[in-house]
């Protein structure tokens, strides 16, 4: 309650400041611009209003408010309507205050004031200036009583003023609120607004609202036109009102039109639901891609089975957490530090693993598998000892939360959207590195034929260490992204390792494009199966599919050709 | 050269020593448990008896893996799945034996099914009230799965790392499946609360000792069987497949048939190990399918020493004893120790403890070094050719 009130207070303060600045402008601007019909749209119009008020001397805001002291709801309604018609920035906060029972009737002098209860007393403020005008006993004042009818009136008036707001977002919301409203006054206002509205988005909302209202029209052609216009519209209210119209109509052509419109809406909804599934599939695919792409380097290019890959991802995620702990006040951009930091941490760990373990095991892939599995156990346990076995939460920055709403049934959450782009960016960066740089050339040379590469003067030991570091570093970067989606815990890596291997093997070892295709293909397949079979069963089906697939094509989707492919 | 007949396998010195040590230890524990009263200093508690039985089950499992990995070069990361399937088959029999003594007292349905509001027994639970049927399933289910899986995999020449990864995926998929309540195997909790086996109460000392002896007999028989297989002509072809599969194929052997055969036998042995394990620990749950278990199993074999059979047994017992000690004294350190073991064994001890020991007694154990030589596994030749 207190929070809400202070919010209102702040809003009022802002309004007050704007008001003051307008007044100053008005004073400076001595020439009076010609009157326009448009009313509240801009600051200059506002000044006209002030000017004209001064000339005709209409009732002031406070005078109108004082009519609310009446006991009759009809009188109050008249007062509310009169208040709403004032071109004054105080109107909206005052209407809101009335809704929130913050407008009180001071019985001592029979006036209306803004009131806040403090220690059993009312602190009264002037409705226009918000200056404190005094304190009265809690019994001496009482909030203005409103009923449901008045609430509707106030809401409508608020929506109406929102409809004429200079900010198109406010207008969009106001128009959205009026969808399904059949008050003739609102409809007139919507109709007027339609003539001058410039934003297509707002215009669409207004059309929807008007067409829904037109469904109740007595004129058949008007109804048919409205049905036609609403056909395919995804607003939930549209489907409801079309359905309710379908249940009352007895006209054959209207029934047919309604059924068609509903069918079209259902078709569009199912299309967008599929799009939604595909988006989630892409999102899962991008996670798989991030997790697998480092493995595609260490496993695909170097032939090293790195079972500690998942733990390198986990280290990246923990690095994100540590960076956030070190920079508690800058969650918005600490991710930008976390990405290189995670890369470094994981890459260094990777290089250490390569130098102390894997180096001795080249050419013995099954042994590398066991040794790196041992490393993964050590890393996991180390994290458990250092950070505790409990999950840690990584804070999602503001710009990554929320969703991009495309229509009422289809929206893209920003974090998933960003991660898809991030995964693609990492993929492209890696591809460029391997294909366009000297290090990439050396890596490919060593992976294709170590002896010849050495004979040509490539220091294969160094290249091995760097390649392994690169693959590990990318795992760390993947950890930063995963930290935004899941809990950061010691088991984070374990849950991705089997999936990552599946992706690399399915795509064809040593082929980055294969990894990309496999990651997105498996991600989408998984999400498409999920609604039918449930999450766990979908995963099992995908696993079995891969097992069978590998038996048909043991080298994956895009097998490597030539000497390097022969075992 | 060893005598390659079954009788030869029974009478060769390694097998005799192995069985001597195994039965000697079992007999000693049995006597100490049965003869001395509980307050005697020489008494061995029922806990120790069960613990030893558990180790022997693990040893049997390790033996099964050594047969495929050490002799055939197939590194299966899914042997835990066969173990667990054998365990589930035994668990289902034990579950049916509970009868109406469960919490809900339903004579037909196990407790978890009553809890899930199931009305009747699923079809695949029928027959498990008979021991002979359960025993058949213990061998048949893992064997059949291994046969089908191996048939698909070996026919299309999935080898090396790829095979390892898909076996791991197999056990992972089974784990996910068994975690589901709908599958009818008790979901997350698995099968537990067993009462008796063939009419003997599982709580009594005598049954525990009996189970230990049964496990020891199973292990010894499996050992002899594996000795016989590896010493036979088929065993030599299997070795050839391990060392140079393409060459063996070109010479005219259907290598996939040999691999499939060994893989299936190994899976059946793993299933048997699981079936002996479950009544001793009193529970079977989907955690047994977890890929970690299967990989840990590989390390037992690696620690002991591959392609020696008894090395696998020694490795399984040593590592598990270490695990029992560590998890009791300092639980945090166990995973460090296990991880370190993985690294140390693969980097410094490629032939395991047996290899280390045999280096010192080279003269005495010359023939073991020959079979234990792992430097020319197909893995060593692959990838960097």
From TrEMBL, chain A:
Entry keywords, A to Z: Amino-acid transport, Cell membrane, Membrane, Signal, Transmembrane, Transmembrane helix, Transport
Membrane-spanning intervals of the chain: 278-305, 333-357, 369-387, 417-434, 463-483, 503-525, 532-550
One BP term from GO: amino acid transport
Gene Ontology molecular function terms on file: transmembrane transporter activity
Keyword Cell membrane: yes
InterPro entries: ABC_transp_permease, ABC_UrtB_bac, ARM-like, ARM-type_fold, BCAA_transport_permease
Cellular location(s): Cell inner membrane
Gene Ontology cellular-component annotations: plasma membrane
Annotated membrane topology: Multi-pass membrane protein
Principal localisation: membrane
Domain of life from the UniProt record: Bacteria
Signal peptide per UniProt: 1-23
Family stated for the protein in its record: Belongs to the binding-protein-dependent transport system permease family. LivHM subfamily.
Record's protein name: Urea ABC transporter permease subunit UrtB
TrEMBL record, chain B:
Source taxon at top rank: Bacteria
InterPro entries assigned: ABC_transp_permease, ABC_transptr_urea_perm_UrtC, LivM-like
Cellular component terms (Gene Ontology): plasma membrane
UniProt GO MF annotations: branched-chain amino acid transmembrane transporter activity
TM region(s), chain numbering: 17-36, 42-61, 68-90, 131-154, 161-179, 209-229, 258-277, 297-321, 333-357
Keyword vocabulary terms for this entry: Cell membrane, Membrane, Transmembrane, Transmembrane helix
Subcellular location: Cell inner membrane
Keyword Transmembrane helix annotated: yes
Pfam families associated with the record: BPD_transp_2 (PF02653)
Main location: membrane
Membrane topology summary: Multi-pass membrane protein
NCBIfam families with a match to the protein in the record: urea_trans_UrtC
Name of this chain's protein: Urea ABC transporter permease subunit UrtC
Organism: Alcanivorax profundi
Gene: urtC
